[in-house]
Amino acid sequence: MRQIIAGLFQSLDGVVQAPGGPREDESDGFRFGGWLVPHFSEVTGGFIDEVFSGAFDLVLGRRTYEIFAAHWPRIENDPFADKFNRAAKYVLTSSDAPLAWNNSHRLKDFAAVRALKETDGPRLIVQGSSTIYPGLLQEGLIDRLFLLTFPIILGRGKRALPGAMPTAFSLVESRVSESGVIIAVYEPKGDVETGSFALET
Fold first, then answer.
1. What does the DSSP assignment read for 23-45?
2. How far apart are CA 101 and CA 15, in angstroms?
3. Which of 105-109, 145-149, 162-166 has the lowest mean pLDDT?
4. Where is the Bacterial bifunctional deaminase-reductase C-terminal domain (predicted)?
């Protein structure tokens, strides 16, 4: 069985839209594309290198797939790009539009993701694709979740984990970069527990 590792870059107010560049996702008039770049540092880059070390395949939503497919095949003589271009890309989509990027495969639903997870092969990494996270969590498919929280408030934009089911997590690793990015790695723990500080009388 494969492990599914999922990760998001988010602002302090939970915005995940267009972290990598101005033209990445301008939907709904979003004007802060590329907000991640000024805060990227040696610690942040080192963590990302660790996540994508060794063999892996990708699980992506359709929009992130299209963003990646427009970028990574154009990058030459770069070990990171070579990994992305070589990896199998599994795209969770209801669309019948062609998947032109090398080694791309369509997944029609979360049952197909589960079937993929139960096969032999390298780790499955979900990057970006925030709209598929609620379903992955609902189906208990995420084994490890990493969140990189950047020291900015964006005020508007697509949010992390929209509509996700209540779930408790255990923190298994954390770091803070030179530029103030909080890197936190979690594993699902089970149901959310509650308590009360209210006085009995």
1. TS--GGG---TTTTGGG--HHHH
2. 28
3. 162-166
4. 3-182
CA dihedral 185, 190, 191, 197 (to 10 degrees): -60
DSSP the chain: ---EEEEEEEETT-B-S--S-TTS--GGG---TTTTGGG--HHHHHHHHHHT-S-EEEEEEHHHHHHHHHHGGG--S-HHHHHHHHS-EEEE-S--S---STTEEEE-SHHHHHHHHTSSSSEEEEES-GGGHHHHHHTT--SEEEEEEES---SSSPBSSTTPPP-EEEEEEEEE-TT--EEEEEEEEESPP--------
Out of 3.40.640.10, 3.40.430.10, 3.30.390.10, 3.40.630.30, select the CATH number for domain 9-190.
3.40.430.10
pTM of the predicted model as reported, rounded to 2 decimal places:
0.90
- In this prediction, residue 155 carries a pLDDT of 96
- Looking at residue 96, what is its pLDDT? 87
Separation of alpha carbons 30 and 32, rounded Å: 6
Q: Where are the domains of the chain?
A: 9-190
Token code pair at residue 182: 């909080």
Q: 179 pLDDT exceeds 90? A: yes
- Residue 128 has what pLDDT? 81
